[in-house]
Amino acid sequence: MSGDDQRDYDGFALLGLDRTGQAEAFDAIGDRYDEAFPHKDGQLAAGEWLAGALPPGSRILDLGCGTGLPTARQLVGAGHEVVGVDLSPGMLDLARANVPDATFHLADLADLRDGRLGVFDGAAAFFSLLMLPRPEIPHALRMLHGLLRPGGLLALSMVEADVDDYAIPFLGSTIRVSGYLRDELRQVVCDAGFDIAGESSWAYAPASTDVPPEIQLFLDLRRV
């Protein structure tokens, strides 16, 4: 590990902001999550890029894997070795049932900084980093950079929003989210050591609400 990587890991560890309640919220939501978000075209397209751009049998981290749908199942179906990580025991129970051929671990994102899960050829972080306060997101990206082999790929998605650790109602619970406007997000990922190989945006509204569509940003990234 380089000196820069170690400082980023240490900074991420020192921030250690309280995420109490996030896992409990998703435990309570359970399989209602997939019912509320039934059509994930942007996520499926980004997962298809990741699955197709890596050689068969690649080792891929699914960070914030949730119920395992659609990403872990999609990547396993494409012939890859998938390791899923999530904070929510309830979500992991569903993921293990939905994708029995993947491996799942209960862990906080910061727990991975010690390399306990090894290195990966690719990673997916679909809407998982938005659960962090903004000061932690650059450190999390640098940590992912360190977990990927040189040239490794990262499929990243965020909601476009200029917010930091903002509490929102979510399927009967409350969660805290952060976001960036797209130019700032591009800068943050480049500063973390990634090249942007592709980008798309999708308007998306949950099936269970009448709220205006959010803009979802998907970045196809390659570790420099």
UniProtKB/TrEMBL annotation:
Molecular-function annotations in GO: methyltransferase activity
Keyword Hydrolase: no
InterPro entries xref list: Methyltransf_25, SAM-dependent_MTases_sf
Alphabetical GO biological process terms: methylation
Protein origin, superkingdom: Bacteria
UniProt keywords, alphabetically: Methyltransferase, Transferase
Recorded coiled-coil stretches: none
Record domain Methyltransferase: where: 60-152
Pfam families to which the protein is assigned, alphabetical: Methyltransf_25
PANTHER family in the record: METHYLTRANSFERASE, METHYLTRANSFERASE TYPE 11
Protein name: Class I SAM-dependent DNA methyltransferase
